[in-house]
Sequence to fold (304 residues):
Amino acid sequence: GSDSRPPPYDLKRSSAPSTGSPSEDGDAMSSVSAGQSQHDTRRPSVLLDGGSVIGLRDNLLQAARKERQICLDREEKRRSVELRASRDASTQTDPVSLASERRPSALLSTGMLDMTVSTGSSQLGWSRADEEAQSEAVRTIQLLAQRGSSSRGTEGRVAELEAQLQAERSARQERETQQAHERSRKEAAQQQVLCLEYELDGKEAALQVAERTLERRDADLQQAQLQLRVMEGGLNTVASVAATSEDPRLKMLRSQLGERERQLELKDQHIERLLNVLKQHRTTFESDSMLGLSSTTFPRVTDF
Fold:
């Protein structure tokens, strides 16, 4: 009778992807295993109605479509992140956080539900198209699980690429710093070269001015020498003319001047002779005094 049937379990809840805690996955597995054992022991009395099986198939298909869309979105995000990182290395790449994948317990519960639904469908007389759709949904779920496991490797690859990108960014900043230092040193050297060039130009200009001054002085000197020669020639002519036209008084004065000059020379000579005589007498006096001193000291030395 109706009282001896076991309470029906929620197939829609168990068919959804497991995203909760391990305790919830264990409850789902226990409920599914309990339903499977009861179905095996009391098969004639426990049969799934057509509406619940169709709803389960629809739920499985919807879950498969959702999982496929989620995986496609993840793949699209990963590709956009890699493309953005390859185009512009200077742009900060946001880390891609991927959702946790389905646990093996959820896959196991899905497989057990697949077994239960296949048993019920064989009894209710599913068509081949329904079975193919169900198998396609199961294959899609398995493919999504495989992609979820491969997405972990993709996450590791993304983290590695981010680390490489950060290292390249730091190396590029260091190179930019070195280039800035080299550029500043180069600019300082260029400024020093310009200062030296300006100083050299100033010295060249001063040298040219000095050369022009020397040339002018040479010209002035030559002109002065020429004028001196002309003046010497004029003086010679004037002296010759004066010698020819000299009066007797001037001659007498010149003779007197010459006589006085001779007298002065004689006086100078006499003074020099006197000085020599005085020096000779001084030397003889000094020698005599030295001899007197030596004669007074000799007897004492001999007596001793």
